[in-house]
Design a protein that fits this description.
- A hairpin with a 2-residue loop joins strand 4 and strand 5.
- The longest helix is centred in the N-terminal third of the chain and has 18 residues.
- The strands form four sheets. This protein has a five-stranded mixed β-sheet with strand order 2-1-3-11-6, with helices on both faces. Strands 8-7-9 form a three-stranded antiparallel β-sheet. Strands 4-5 form a two-stranded antiparallel sheet.
- The protein contains 18 helices and twelve strands.
- The chain folds into two domains: about 200 residues, 3-Layer(aba) Sandwich (D-Maltodextrin-Binding Protein, domain 2), CATH 3.40.190; about 200 residues, Periplasmic binding protein-like II (D-Maltodextrin-Binding Protein, domain 2), CATH 3.40.190.10.
- The chain has about 450 residues and is an alpha/beta fold.
- About 40% of the residues lie in helices and about 10% in strands.
- Helix 1 packs across helix 3.
Length: about 450
């Protein structure tokens, strides 16, 4: 479906039948789903027109779902809701424009660090977050760190993206390995073996909105790297763990897939579909696309947690939140729509449709009832045990968000991969962090 294609009434009714939405004007947190569909003929939002800027989700059915939900809510309220979409890179650019000018959608899908970068651009949604926490919580610590800036909720946490190693079991076994590496030392040997076999591993090292951070922070942390101390005030990027992480990347890079230095988010997916890559860190969309397109190799896809290094088995806990434009004239209507979306009937159905590509930051939805049935992906949500945010072990906030937005850690790892002098790389990185952390 085109990003701006409107949902027809026929298509909408088909989706209502499929999902059983609670979309009426009365749909609210804690409401009975059946009663929620009995909306009054007229309501406070009749005639209003809203826009919702949503990410281009990698699983197409999730977009069909959201289009149908928005159309249903609009029809029930005699309103208009236009859903538009953009890539994660585009979403970040639009967030900057919204913050600077106020020009943008009423409802905005926020990248992980957007609320911290532009808190005043978004309305306080603490009322909704409090209601959700009371009904379905608690919220995950990561979600709170994204969205609660200086004590104010600037976004409603929507999803986590579980990061896991995706790999081809058939390639691995043909190369003489019986199981996926459990340690970072084993991962290096595995990379050498897969490169010799002709199916190298690949980690995004370009300025990929998601995968660059997901891959590089995982390796950086696993090898003991850290940006700051626990207080988030003292820069520790020049510690021994950083040097170890850079040395590791220098050793790993020669055995990785060519082109990883410029890979954006589609890069690893495309390499798998071309049959040229054996393993990568990603969400499970490689498998989902291969399965749904009936690719013969889909049954050979497997997933594994991050191998353990001196710094543990950490994963970057990326996510998406939903914010409301602080300068919107439709804040009340936007809150009503979002309350309806997070109605447990609607949100649970959308979450299950995501099949572990997404998981919820709310505790209620971690139960088995909301996990995928497909055995190849059913364990992915359990691989998030050591979830971290940039700025770990200190708190996440505007400063680590800015460092993340500038891709400093990603670029340090890429510099090491290309053979630059490691003390010089660390000196450069420390200087970049000092400029950010000197700001008040």
């Amino acid at each position: 479906m085109n990003a701006q294609q409107k949902m027809t009434r026929r298509n909408f009714m088909g989706q209502v039948a499929r999902y059983g939405f609670a979309v009426g004007a009365g749909a609210a947190l804690g409401s009975d789903a059946q009663a929620a569909t009995k909306a009054p003929a007229r309501g406070p939002f009749e005639g209003i027109s809203m826009t919702w800027e949503d990410p281009s989700w990698y699983k197409p059915s999730m977009m069909v779902f959201l289009d149908a939900f928005a159309a249903g809510w609009a029809a029930a309220n005699k309103a208009s809701v236009t859903v538009t979409r953009g890539s994660l890179e585009e979403m970040l650019q639009k967030g900057a424009i919204l913050a600077e000018t106020g020009i943008g959608p009423d409802i905005y899908g926020q990248r992980t660090h957007v609320p911290s970068l532009y808190p005043k651009a978004f309305a306080d949604v603490g009322d909704i977050c409090g209601e959700l926490e009371k009904r379905d919580g608690p919220w995950s610590p990561a979600a709170i760190s994204w969205c609660k800036v200086d004590g104010v909720w600037r976004g409603i946490p929507m999803v986590h993206f579980p990061g896991a190693w995706n790999y081809r079991q058939d390639y691995m076994e043909q190369a003489g390995w019986k199981e996926f590496p459990k340690t970072m030392d084993e991962l290096l040997e595995f990379a050498k073996a897969m490169h010799k076999f002709g199916k190298p591993i690949g980690l995004a090292m370009g300025h990929a909105a998601s995968d660059g951070h997901r891959a590089m922070y995982a390796v950086f942390w696993a090898m003991g790297g850290r940006e700051v101390d626990k207080t988030g005030t003292k820069i520790e990027l020049d510690g021994p763990g950083t040097a170890d992480a850079l040395e590791y990347m220098k050793k790993l890079f020669p055995f990785m897939h060519e082109g990883v230095l410029s890979w954006l988010d589609p890069g690893n997916n495309q390499a798998f579909f071309a049959g040229t890559c054996s393993a990568t860190i990603n969400v499970d969309t490689i498998y989902l696309a291969a399965r749904d397109q009936k690719m013969p190799w889909a049954k050979s896809m497997r997933h594994a947690p991050q191998p353990k290094g001196p710094g543990g088995s950490p994963v970057y806990q990326e996510g998406i939140a939903i914010g409301i434009n602080a300068r919107s004239k439709n804040i009340a209507a936007a809150k009503a729509l979002l309350r309806a979306f997070f109605d447990s009937k609607n949100f649970a159905a959308w979450l299950k449709d995501g099949e572990a590509y997404i998981t919820s930051p709310l505790n209620r939805y971690s139960m088995a009832d909301y996990l995928p049935a497909d055995p190849i992906i059913k364990d992915i949500p359990t691989y998030q045990g050591d979830s971290r945010m940039p700025g770990w072990p200190g708190p996440f906030g505007p400063k680590p968000a800015e460092a993340m937005n500038k891709f400093i850690i990603v670029d340090m790892m890429a510099k090491a991969a290309q053979g630059e002098n490691i003390p010089d790389i660390i000196k450069w990185g420390v200087q970049e962090y000092k400029q950010i952390y000197a700001k008040k």
